[in-house]
Amino acid sequence: MADQAPPSSRRAADVAPPRSDRNRWNWLLLLPIVLPLLVPLYNRRDPELFGWPFFYWVQLLFVAVGVVTTTLVLRAHQRRKQG
Amino acid sequence: MAGVNTVELAVFILFFVVVTALGFGAARWRRAESLMHLDEWGLGGRSFGTWITWFLIGGDIYTAYTFVAVPALVFGAGAAGFFAVPYTVVVYPLIFLVVIRLWSVSHVRGFVTPADFVRSRFDSPTMALLVAVTGIVATMPYIALQLVGIEAVLKTMGVTGELPIIVAFLILAVYTYSSGLRAPALIAFVKDTLIYLTIIVAVIVIPTKLGGWDVVFGAAEEKFDLAGTGGLLLPGTGQLQYATLALGSALALFLYPHSITGALAAKSRGTLQKNMSLLPVYSLALGFIALLGYMAIAAGTTPVDGDGNTVVPALFQQMFPSWFAGVAFAAVGIGALVPAAIMSIAAANLFTRNIYKEYLKKDATPENEAKVAKLASLVVKVGAVAAIIFIDPQFSIDLQLIGGAIILQTLPAVGIGLYTRWLHRGALVAGWTAGMLTALWALYEIPRLGPGGVVVREHFGGSAFSLSELGFDTATTIYAGFLALLVNLVVVVVVTLVLRAMQVDDGVDGTAPNDYTAEREDPSVRDLPDPLASAPGADPQRG
Q1: What is the pTM of this model?
Q2: Which residues cross the membrane (chain A) (predicted)?
């Protein structure tokens, strides 16, 4: 099987140019996906922070990891698009 | 019940009136040529920029029910209720690359719903119908749950009876009818401003009043030790459930028709990607909201009428002056309207495009479609109100639980389909069926346990499926929806191999590889596409 050309009579000018979403930076996205799933690693009390058990503050830290990595990947995609 | 708190109620009603005015005003905001076209009404003309999209998707995902139920869960069970945080961390990187492909192909081919995509990609009206029906069935109880959120707030203010809820939803129904997707986008601004204000104040004021965070966590630990259930940390056997529930919920989130409706309304791929890195701000807020559950324990809050969902409103009432509690309640109330509006629009789109036009009236004009969609959105909302009034709200909660598990079964067609067409259309149907049966069976087998491990209810008691049911010698539990998805995937792959070996026809792909990476600037990307022009396998009189 292969992605076949569209069957209808689409004009050539109507078709998007070939591009790719592939980018080495995409691998960074694995970090915020995998980290929160490794529950046994953070299911504990110590070290505490401002009275918060580790379990709670580290998961809020994962939010920050998610923001940073998605922003970096977004930048990489934007660079690719411009240049 | 003590009497009605008039100050709270006055503030609540004030905000509700403002929001209603906004909702009606939305019809004139960024008005396009004609609202009588499904794309315009149901997708807001597909031209929302970064900020509007942020508010819209944010309002879509972090619903009133979330704000009420997550802390209620943490209040009752402790750490297990905190899964909402990893769930909303995992979701954005997970779909960062996927959702932009859906955006592109939808804008090139004129898809409004996930079922549109499946029909064209796999040339399978059957699978499209299954996706549409799954979407509608999963969305309906979700709308009903938004009412549970409003009900919790009203109850806390001392307002009882069904009339206020009926009024609130009538207002919602009328302005969604007249303004389409722009109504929720606009009122989401108000909702989020109120929510953030409430959360920031709550997180600073309440722990200070209670004597600090260590007191809050300490009180919670003491309560769980006494009760013998729940805890500040997860039991060893609950860790797999925690991870699979977070991952499964994240995978399910963007299969829900209302999230897709929100995403497709974005202006460009860049808008969506920017949102994937901005939306976690809500997750941070959600983390603090979840901990309101522990604050309620430390403050000795008791739920109104033993209804767990009233824990947070009751805490606000106890801790804040009445006028500010009113603001907080308005935040929850309005927070219910935004997602309910988007959900009813998404369900209406599914019905109109994939059931009405596909099976009932093949020659429907765009005006026909818009009319039917508007009517369907009304029917869906009336259904939700009726469900809350006539049926035990617990039933909606059960249904929503099932909804999450069954929407996950559309992942191979909608999610994996964005990357490959290798999966055979017949196999997708087989996998969906197997996954659906597994999900229902597993959820049916889950009992609800009360304190001390006593079985309170025999069936549909939660989402944590015990692996011992499968013959494993363990007390470990796993998210039922995730288990069903695994079964689904295995069946899809095996049946695909068989069907491909037998060389069964797999239809014609109605999309082209370049469609999936199309940018807004490309000539092929259209704002108001004519879906009929690019529908594959369209018979002559339709083409």
Answers
A1: 0.84
A2: 25-42, 54-74
